Amino acid sequence: MRIGILSRDRNLYSTRRLVEAAQERGHEVSVIDVLKCYMNITANNPGVYYQRNAEVVEELQFDAVIPRIGASITTYGCAVLRQFEVAHVYSINESIAINRSRDKLRAHQLLARKGIGQPVTSYAHSARATDKLIESVGGAPLILKLTESTHGEGVLLAETKKAAEALINAFRGIGSDFLVQEFIREAGGSDIRCFVVGKRVIAAMQRTAAAGEYRSNLHRGGVAQVVKLRPEERSLAVRAAQVMGLDLAGVDIIRSSHGPLVIEVNSSPGLEGIETATGKNVADRIIEYVEKDSQLGPNKPKGKG
How confident is the model at residue 302 (pLDDT cuts 50, 70, 90)? Predict the structure, then answer.
């Protein structure tokens, strides 16, 4: 197969591992920076073209693509991916699903519509609703999240009501959309990353925040270890990915006093942490899935919204 990996940096661990896994399985693989692509938007001959250097421009021809589109380039990256879809090229995750997962408000609404357990979450625009927003999630401490963020960026803990009011007013002052979310104290600064491929959780790790930090992201000093999932956690992770329409997802859940809750569904989960913590060859499992699933033909949009 000819596989294209849509990534801005071929040296990133995740990109490098996918290239290695694809080559080891006998595939021809290329890393494509989507910002160097342009598109021919026609009904008869849709195409994506790549500016390799000042002199060389080539039309990209792939049997399958694996999008690794960073949050900062979601709009253009998904436009390029959508053009591959127009040309009937298989993608493990489709553009509509990536957009769903990147918009945190939309993602929470879709999960709620399907009955997926989440921390209590509120959203409002009027400054007069500040007190009601805080009350609706059980008061302080609480979490504030920008609706478009990733890797723990734009996620803040307000330990007191005054701190919550100040953060809410600050976000509104700069015109940023945000969510107010219940703080799950019993989680103890830990969450579980479930790595979903297709309809299976192929690997899982528990991430625990560093001392003095409430975000468990590994690049913020969090520590990862293998965790044994409970059946309801495994089922919840797969259902959450399916609601988003993602065949490849990192589903983050926390253990609360009233059961497992989804806090985020990531469409471009990193491989370094999960492979290091579990010792599993996750990259190989992804390529194996692409081989089998692409034989069924180009994806059809999954989920709604």
Answer: low
Domain encompassing residue 191: 186-294
Give how many domains the chain has, as a whole number: 3
**Of the candidates 93, 108, 129, which is a domain's last residue?**
93
pLDDT(303) > 60: no
Which CATH number characterizes residue 232's domain? 3.30.470.20
| Domain-embedded: residue 104 | no
**pLDDT tens digits for range 184-215:** 988 888 999 999 999 999 999 999 876 655 55
- pTM to 2 decimal places: 0.89
Same domain, residue pair 193 and 162: no
d(C-alpha 16, C-alpha 11), whole Å: 6
C-alpha–C-alpha distance, residues 24 and 18, integer Å: 10
Distance CA 250, CA 178 (A): 22
E strand residue ranges, 119-222: 121-122, 142-146, 155-158, 178-182, 190-197, 200-208
65-79, 180-194, 205-219: which has the highest mean pLDDT?
65-79
Q: Is residue 254 one of the residues assigned to a domain?
A: yes
Strand pairing report for 64-67 and 2-6? parallel
- DSSP assignment of 19-32 equals HHHHHHTT-EEEEE
Residue among 213, 125, 127 at smallest CA distance from 165: 127
Phi–psi pair at 10, nearest 5 degrees: -70, -15
Of 78, 93, 108, at which residue does a domain stop? 93
Cα–Cα distance, 221 to 244 (Å, whole number): 29
